[in-house]
Amino acid sequence: MNSAGARSAEGLSARAQVQWSVRWENELQLADHAELAEFFRKSYGPTGAFNAQPFEGNRSWAGARPEVRVIGHDARGVAAHVGLLRRFIKIGGVELLVAELGLYAVRPDLEGLGISHSMRVMYPVLQQLGVPFGFGTVRPALEKHLTRLVERHGLATLMSGIRVRSTHPDVYPNLSPIRSEDVVVVVFPVGCSISEWPAGTIIDRNGPEL
């Protein structure tokens, strides 16, 4: 087997060893939060110290706090994570219940794990909660990568040219409490079809990003 084939086989083996669990926030103990906080610092730290800063100590969330988490574990500890929070967002004056998905991360040595693996576990949760849509945002630089991983499996639709307004999780002197970003919106149809997603180029979270 050539080196590329060997790496592929190793990747498949590593993914097969990841065990997934669905955890409600009230089920997590202090040790769980400490383990997740360390995982997020290591996952987000390479993209900049500022991105790892919210997870100092035992804080396992950055902005809004999730109510449900899908967590992947293997022999080395936390392998991947995605959080969920039900909330109402406003699109073009229409209020819409969504399950916001965020706090996505995968351990650097398992980058090939992909969001599609965690979403296979999360999607039944979305169905059980009876929400019309799953909703998330990503930076434009990740659009091409996400297109391959998500749209290829028919899980979601990507929407660009949309501005999303959120509140900062904390209030700082001389800084607007509102943050406005041009992002790629990811919509997972659950109880409704994508044709029922409201038209609009501005989305208000009316709260901090998950």
TrEMBL record:
Acyltransferase is among the record's keywords: yes
EC top class named in words: transferase
Entry's localization field: Cytoplasm
Location (main, coarse): cytoplasm
Claim: Transferase is one of the keywords in the record: yes
Family annotation (InterPro entries): NodA (IPR003484), Nodulation_prot_NodA_CS (IPR020567)
GO molecular function annotations of the record: acyltransferase activity
Key words of the record: Acyltransferase, Cytoplasm, Nodulation, Transferase
One term under GO cellular component: cytosol
EC number per UniProt: 2.3.1.-
Function per UniProt: N-acyltransferase required for nodulation. Acts in the production of a small, heat-stable compound (Nod) that stimulates mitosis in various plant protoplasts.
Stored HAMAP family: NodA (MF_00084)
NCBIfam families for this protein: nodulat_NodA (TIGR04245), PRK00756.1 (NF001974)
Sequence similarity: Belongs to the NodA family.
Name recorded for this polypeptide: Nodulation protein A
Organism name: Bradyrhizobium sp. USDA 3152A
Gene from which this protein is expressed: nodA
